[in-house]
Write a structure and sequence with these properties.
Layout lengths: L4 H10 L9 E5 L10 H15 L12 E4 L2 E10 L6 E3 L9 E9 L7 E10 L8 H8 L23 E7 L4 E2 L14 E2 H12 L6 H4 L2 E2 L2 E2 L2 H6 L19 E3 L6 E3 L16 H10 L9 H9 L6 E7 L9
Helix pairs in contact: 1-8, 2-4
Zinc ion binds next to helix 4.
Length: about 325
């Protein structure tokens, strides 16, 4: 029996395996001081995390609380905006488990036309200005060999990305649809699809529009990453001014199909719409340095379904610009 592309996609979606190896998003509600995340809303966010985890195989190294290097204690701090207030937070004494990205989530009225906002940065003590320092490589690159730990010092040679995580703030100013079963698309016409916005913001935490390995491949207003160029039919895809998103309205096929959809990482979304990651969105993650598993061919789908740097402190800050779009 020939399955339509949409049915194939639904089959693949319903068969997301639990993450065994690879990436794990650890969703942290410590800063959800307004209580935005009820259990049912948390479940939708978990679905968004699982959707991305299912195809990302990298094994990120653990980040220890601190280390003694050459007799001196070296520390690092995750830096992010408190998702419930927008104020900057710098944490001390934090360790991150292997495989894991920690994502602090919450909600506030962000204002303007912004649906949600992702922020992350890392502050580390410096122990001399040399590349290849193992401690700094672990903290800033998480064992990903292609991470340039001095990306702001030319040349930026980053071909990979190893973040600790970040924060995502969702705006309380909009009507959200919290889909209790994201394998079926039924977003009401008067609401924004929370799942779609969550996977968009997680894409920024994964480096789309933010990682040094992304910006290395930005040329003017196009993106030259080879996977993305191939997914775009051999032409470098256009970017929104500033380079943080695909150009507004950029489309690409849904994985394993010839069904186009507006990309998940274009700057905006309208009410009543579900946005999955398209081939171009997944390709961007590959160009950043993530190991993305292939989508099963339709025949296989059935089987599948059957079963920053200073003298003492590095401060890298990546923050999506707050433009007129819905999802900075
Ligand atoms: Ca549904
Ligand atoms: Ca990698
Ligand atoms: Zn965005």
């Amino acid at each position: 029996m020939k399955l339509s592309p949409l049915v194939s996609l639904a089959a693949a979606v319903s068969a997301w395996p639990a993450a065994q190896a690879g990436l794990i998003f650890q969703l942290d509600y410590t800063y959800d001081t307004s209580g935005f995340f009820t259990d049912s809303r948390k479940a939708v966010l978990e679905s968004a995390a699982s959707y991305l985890e299912a195809r990302i195989e990298d094994n990120l190294a653990a980040i220890p609380v601190n280390s003694v290097v050459s007799g001196a204690t070296q520390t690092w701090k995750p830096v992010f905006n408190n998702p419930s207030t927008g104020s900057q937070v710098q944490l001390t004494g934090v360790s991150i488990p292997a495989q894991t990205m920690v994502v602090y989530v919450g909600a506030r009225n962000i204002g303007g036309g912004t649906l949600a906002q992702a922020t992350f940065a890392t502050s580390v003590t410096a122990i001399g200005d040399f590349r290849g320092d193992p401690w700094r490589t672990t903290v800033l690159g998480r064992g990903q060999a292609g991470v340039d730990i001095y990306p702001t010092v030319a040349p930026n040679t980053s071909t990979d990305f190893g973040p600790w995580g970040g924060s995502i703030s969702f705006s309380t100013a909009f009507d959200w649809y919290f889909d209790s079963d994201v394998s079926t698309v039924d977003v009401p016409g008067n609401s924004y699809d929370f799942f779609s916005v969550a996977v968009h913001e997680m894409g920024h935490l994964l480096g789309i529009g933010t990682a040094a390995s992304w910006t290395r491949q930005v040329s003017g207003t196009t993106f030259t990453g080879p996977y993305s160029v191939a997914a775009n039919g051999g032409t470098p895809p256009d970017l929104q001014t500033g380079g943080g998103h695909w150009d507004n309205g950029t489309t690409s096929d849904l994985p394993g199909t010839i069904t186009p959809q507006e990309t998940a990482l274009d700057p905006d979304i309208i009410k009543g719409v579900r946005k999955w990651y398209t081939e171009l969105d997944w390709a961007a993650l590959q160009d950043i340095g993530w190991q993305v598993t292939p989508v099963p061919e339709p025949g296989e789908t059935l089987v599948f379904a059957g079963v920053g740097l200073g003298l003492f402190v590095l401060f890298r800050r990546r923050r999506s610009a707050s433009r007129a779009g819905w999802m900075p």
